[in-house]
Design brief:
- By secondary structure, this protein is an alpha/beta fold.
- About 35% of the residues lie in helices and about 20% in strands.
- The protein has one domain (about 5-30, about 35-335): Ribokinase (UDP-N-acetylmuramoyl-L-alanine:D-glutamate ligase).
- It has eleven helices and 14 strands.
- The chain has an eight-stranded mixed beta sheet with strand order 4-1-9-10-11-12-13-14, with helices on both faces. A four-stranded mixed beta sheet has the order 3-2-7-8.
- The two termini are about 15 Å apart.
Length: about 325
C-alpha cells in the first residue's frame, strides 16, 4: 500500500452499512428451497464507509464520523474498517441495529437490495460529539456521504460544520445514497452550498433536478451552490461540469462482476486527484479508474489494491488528462 498521508487527513461523514453480498443470483428459490452460488462476502459499505475503505486502500489517512448499532453487525463494520486501515474510533455505537443490506448480485452486475436503515436513520445532531466535530474541522478534506439517508440529522448543522471546515481550508465533496426529487435537493441545500464537488450518479442527478438532460441537471446543482458536479454515468463513464468546463470521461474497459460501490470508488479516486493538485478532468480519470476497478469484484471494496494498479489502468488510455493523472500518481508512489 502506498502512503499518501502527506496529502492530509480525510474525514468521511455519513452512512455506514454492512453489506452481505452473494453472486451470481439468477432467481430467488421458492419456499424453503436453496441454490448454490459462487461467492458470499461481507463489506463495510455506504456512501461514507465505502469511500473511506477505498481511500485507505490507496494510502490516504482517513477517519470516519457516523453511527452504527450496538449489535454484532456493528462489530463487523468496525473490524472491516480497521482491517482496511480506516480510523473508526469516532463511530458512535447507538442502541439498536446497525444499518445492513442483503444484495443478491445478478450475473450482469446489477444489485437489487434488501435494506434495514438501522443507526443511520436515528443518528442526529445532538449525537455529534466534540471529537467528531473537531475531526471534521481539522481535516484536509471532508466527504459527506449519504446525508439523504439520515432523516434524523439536521442538514443545517452539517452545513455549518462543513462551512467552517471549508473556511479552514478543507476540500468538501458530497455524494448521496438514494434517488430523490426537488424536495430532496432542498433538504441537501444547507450542505450543497458549501460543497466544492457534488458527485451523484446520473439517475440521482436527474431525479434531484427533475429533468432529463445531464448538463441542465448539473447546472441546477451549480445554481444550488455546488462548486462543481462530477456525475458518474455507468457504461458512459462520467461527466464533469462547472461554470467553465464540461468534460466527459469514458468508462474503463473492464469485465463487470458487481456494480456495488462503484460510485464510492469514483469518489475516492476523484478526491485523491483533487488533493494531488490535478485539474478536475485528470482527477475524474482517477475516479473513473477506481470505480471501474471496484466493479471487477464482489462488494464495495473489491478490485482496488493500490496506486500502481490505478496507474497501470490509466496508462492504457491515449488521453492527455489520463496521462497527467497517471504521471502524478506515479510521482507519489516513487516519492
Amino acid at each position: 500500500m502506498s502512503d499518501l498521508k502527506g496529502l492530509g487527513s480525510v474525514v468521511c461523514l455519513g452512512v455506514h452499512i454492512l453489506d452481505i453480498l452473494g453472486r451470481p443470483v439468477t432467481t430467488i428459490p421458492p419456499g424453503q428451497r436453496s441454490i448454490l452460488i459462487d461467492e458470499i462476502r461481507a463489506t463495510a459499505a455506504g456512501t461514507a464507509a465505502g469511500t473511506s475503505v477505498d481511500l485507505a486502500k490507496l494510502g490516504i489517512d482517513v477517519r470516519n464520523v457516523g453511527a452504527i448499532g450496538d449489535d454484532i453487525l456493528g462489530d463487523f463494520v468496525v473490524r472491516l474498517l480497521d482491517d482496511a486501515g480506516v480510523d473508526a474510533t469516532l463511530l458512535l455505537r447507538l442502541a439498536g441495529a446497525t444499518s445492513a443490506t442483503i444484495l443478491p448480485i445478478r450475473p450482469n452486475g446489477e444489485r437489487p437490495a434488501l435494506h434495514v436503515p438501522g443507526a443511520n436513520a436515528i443518528f442526529n445532531a445532538t449525537d455529534l460529539t466534540d471529537e467528531q466535530r473537531d475531526a471534521v474541522l481539522s481535516a484536509r478534506a471532508v466527504h459527506v456521504g449519504g446525508l439523504d439517508a439520515m432523516p434524523a440529522m439536521d442538514p443545517e448543522v452539517i452545513g455549518q460544520l462543513v462551512a467552517t471546515a471549508r473556511h479552514n481550508g478543507a476540500l468538501v465533496t458530497m455524494d448521496v445514497l438514494r434517488n430523490g426529487d426537488r424536495r430532496s435537493l432542498d433538504a441537501l441545500g444547507p450542505v450543497l452550498r458549501h460543497t466544492d464537488w457534488f458527485c451523484p450518479n446520473e439517475e440521482q442527478l436527474l431525479g434531484l433536478a427533475e429533468c432529463t438532460d445531464v448538463l441542465k441537471a448539473a447546472h441546477v446543482m451549480l445554481e444550488a451552490g455546488a462548486g462543481g458536479v462530477a456525475v458518474t454515468r455507468g457504461e458512459q463513464g462520467c461527466r464533469v461540469v462547472t461554470g467553465e468546463i464540461d468534460v466527459s470521461i469514458p468508462a474503463m474497459d473492464i469485465d463487470v462482476v458487481d456494480t456495488t460501490g462503484c460510485g464510492d470508488g469514483f469518489d475516492a479516486g476523484f478526491l485523491i486527484g483533487l488533493l494531488c493538485g490535478l485539474d478536475p478532468a485528470s482527477a475524474a480519470w482517477i475516479g473513473t479508474a477506481c470505480g471501474g476497478l471496484v466493479a471487477t469484484g464482489l462488494g464495495s471494496d473489491a478490485g482496488i489494491t493500490g496506486l500502481l494498479q490505478v496507474v497501470s489502468l490509466l496508462n492504457a488510455y491515449d488521453d492527455d488528462a489520463a496521462r497527467a493523472a497517471a504521471h502524478r500518481l506515479k510521482e507519489l508512489v516513487d516519492a
